[in-house]
Amino acid sequence: MSTNQPYVSFHDGRRAPQLGFGTWQIPEADAAAAIHTALEAGYRSIDTAYIYYNETGVGQGIARSGIARDELFIATKVWNNRHGHDSTKAALRESLDRLQLDYVDLYLIHWPVPMEGRYIDAWEAMIQLRDEGLAKSIGVCNFQVPQLQKLLDKTGALPVLNQIEVHPYFQQAELRAYQADHDIITEAWSPLGQGRVLENPALVAIAHKHQASTAQVILRWHLQSDRMAIPKSVTPARIQENFNLFNLHLDDEDMARIAALDDPEGRIGPDPDQFHLMKG
Ligand code: NDP
């Protein structure tokens, strides 16, 4: 099945579907079914991570789909306790075994854990994994400007993307501007604010105007802002709804109303400068 969906181009010459499927909090036992529903709906990009403990189920869903490998874009992430030359490389091999894949399209550092000071080691390992073909592209999550700049200064290599918390209540304009200047794609995690923004009256009004759902409006806002987004759902109707938005177009007034919802204190997830969970 070919799907009519937008792609973004990376600075390494590769490309990815702009809209992907998130899998955090999808239990291992439910993952294959969720992946099946997402692929049927047209998604071709899937975001998982070691720490989601569902890579085996995600891999089963992919294997059962019969979709050609080169039509899919699969991303996973190295956990905080595996930053290091050998351990980062071993972690990807273990993820590939669980996913039943020969390579991932994108390998990500999940958190910088700056107080441990090992993300440069992890990044050097990621560069080797890319050169060995086990990860087609490499990127990071939850990096702030100083950490991105350090990657550049120490290795000369920047991530193709930074996966960060972005939703209407937390828009991260400064970080996104740095990334735009450095050709780093922004990928929004918790793009729907984990569902907490769906009742916002301004968003509900925009949805009403376009006869769309609030989730569709928010996801469309991400896409029209040149971001990748990876909404998660285990509910088949929502999985389909979240992918059915390529004919929706927000106008300048809609975009401005959503921009006005930004709150510098609106973070839902942890502060990346503080987050240092090492258990995994
Ligand atoms: P999302 O913003 O995607 O929201 C998911 C929640 O919204 C779920 O409760 C889901 O419910 C609900 N939902 C989804 N679609 C709809 C809809 N159309 N209408 C109403 N409710 C809806 O949050 P996530 O935190 O899951 O973020 C998305 C993905 O980002 C993750 O799954 C993960 O892949 C990635 N991520 C990465 C992080 C990182 O550090 N790199 C951190 C956090 C997330 P239900 O499932 O019950 O349908």
In terms of topology, how is this protein built?
Blueprint: E1 7-9, E2 15-17, E3 21-22, H1 28-41, E4 45-47, H2 55-65, E5 73-78, H3 85-99, E6 104-109, H4 119-131, E7 135-141, H5 145-155, E8 161-165, H6 173-181, E9 185-189, H7 201-210, H8 214-224, E10 228-229, H9 236-243, H10 252-259
Parallel strand pairs: 3-4, 4-5, 5-6, 6-7, 7-8, 8-9, 9-10
Antiparallel strand pairs: 1-2
Helix pairs in contact: 1-2, 1-9, 2-3, 3-4, 7-8
This protein binds NADPH dihydro-nicotinamide-adenine-dinucleotide phosphate (NDP).
A few lines on this structure:
This protein is an alpha/beta fold and 280 residues long. The protein is 39% helix and 15% strand. The chain contains 10 helices and 10 strands.
How much of the sequence lies in strands comes to 15-25%
Total domains, how many?
A: 1
| CATH architecture type | Alpha-Beta Barrel
User: Mean pLDDT, nearest integer?
Assistant: 97
Biggest sheet descriptor? 8 strands, parallel
Instruction: Kindly state the percentage of residues in helix.
Output: 25-40%
Number of helices: 10
Identify every distinct bound molecule in the structure, by name, code or SMILES: NADPH dihydro-nicotinamide-adenine-dinucleotide phosphate
What structural class do the secondary elements suggest? Answer: alpha/beta
Low-confidence stretches: none
Radius of gyration: 18 Å
The fourth-level CATH homologous superfamily is NADP-dependent oxidoreductase domain
